């Protein structure tokens, strides 16, 4: 039996018709093509059972590709990050070591998730692998929103208020995948092959879903921007308070719209997953069937030792504990990093997405280098879709549950970046092929975005996009009410 990628079927089998199942039958699993001899284990099958420490460390070190193996050289930073937490001060050192330590920990989670997914059926395996790639992002968002506080009257955008950073991280994750990761995939893939062609279903479905997701994310911002000029600081007549559209009323409406929109986007994501899992010739099947025999190092990957199911589950549990702890350490020191001069927008839009997406990016780049451009492309577009349809809305729902005012009212600057990035990427995907020049241009665009974010000023208010905190609004309303009452008494006298 000849296998590659995630294929579980025979190499000489006829192309499946519309009624053929994605999952192989037991007969097909044991079928060998005529004259073909292969001594490799089934993909994802280790040929072992239980937990073997020496073999576990060997498999962990070799990881999924050369780049991921080099990332394992950062493992000594992990204990250093934990030890530094025992000392007072050293805030920037604690942030830096935790930031670096997240990379090998995230790489372990991504690799363990990949090993686990390979033991699953084809479609379920890709869905599981994509989900594991976003676990770190979900943990980061939840840690950030739990850490967010605006209790102090002196709280501003640099102290306690992490909502602008969360909002920037949501869009930053999408931009990092669309510009940096996709650009590097095109660039390194183009160095090995002058032109790489990908299936139209990847670009059409991917960019289409991104546009839908972006539409949902940007509705609250558009609502706020359209109506903020119509608001008043306080009602002109106290008796007509219920008829006046104040800033507080606008912010409350935006928050409710964001919460309702988040529920709708999560429902859309659930429908998307259900469609992909239940359809036979979907994007997953199209990508796998076209790329399974084009992997340049396919036989080398098949010959690698693999985790057992027990080892994969242990690695996942260990990686989750490490990643969660390190992200908590990292978030605890964000205020000190901002105070040292790193802007909120740069931290959220650039730094955080880079570290939480590092492992997934390495996997995608390795796939593009090996000629598996369709799978690499999906590893760029898929996480972006999940961030927009699920991860971002999820943090709004979690914040709603714990009483935090998290909304989807993004800065206008970030909205422009997202829309322009989707348009640029969609234009590059339109012709169905890529080269190293297109990849280099996408990376340059990402560098320009990073430069602009460095100079973008930090928010000076507790709630996003120019709205005031509830305490400031209450004080302003009280002052204006007193002023209006005084003017009314003077006129009456």
TrEMBL record:
Region described as Disordered: spans on this chain: 1-48
UniProt KW keywords: Antiport, Calcium, Calcium transport, Ion transport, Membrane, Transmembrane, Transmembrane helix, Transport, Vacuole
Any Gene Ontology CC annotation: endomembrane system
BP terms from Gene Ontology: intracellular calcium ion homeostasis
Membrane-spanning segments: 67-87, 93-111, 123-145, 165-189, 201-223, 254-275, 312-331, 410-429, 435-456
Compositionally biased spans, kind Basic and acidic residues: 38-48
Family designation: Belongs to the Ca(2+):cation antiporter (CaCA) (TC 2.A.19) family.
Role summary: Has a role in promoting intracellular calcium ion sequestration via the exchange of calcium ions for hydrogen ions across the vacuolar membrane. Involved also in manganese ion homeostasis via its uptake into the vacuole.
Name of the protein described by the UniProt record: Vacuolar calcium ion transporter
Protein species of origin: Pochonia chlamydosporia 170
